[in-house]
Amino acid sequence: MKKTLEQRVADLEKQVAELRQQRGRRPAKIKDWTTVVGIMEDTPSARKADALGAAYRRAQKWP
C-alpha cells in the first residue's frame, strides 16, 4: 500500500521532531580558534610549518 503525500509529510515531521529532541540533549560543540591554539606539539615538522607560514605571510602583498 502506497502512502499518501499527507502520510509521508506527517512521518517526516515526526522524524524531524525526534532529531530536534536528540540534538537538544547534547551540548553543541564550539569550534573556533581557541580550540586549536597550541594543538601542535613542538616538533621539527611543527617548527617547519610555522616557518613556512610566516614566510608565506611575509610574501603576501597588502594593499
What does this structure look like?
The model has no long low-confidence stretch (mean pLDDT 86). With 63 residues, the chain is mainly α. Helix content is 59%, strand content 0%.
What's the total number of strands?
0
Structural class: mainly alpha
Mean pLDDT: 86
Largest sheet: none
Low-confidence stretches: none
- How many separate helices? 2
Q: Per the principal axes of the C-alpha atoms, what is the gross shape?
A: elongated
Q: Strand percentage, roughly?
A: under 5%
Would you summarize the structure shown here?
By secondary structure, the protein is mainly α. The protein is built from two helices and no strands.
Topology:
Elements: H1 5-25, H2 44-59
Brief descriptors of the model:
mainly alpha; 63 residues
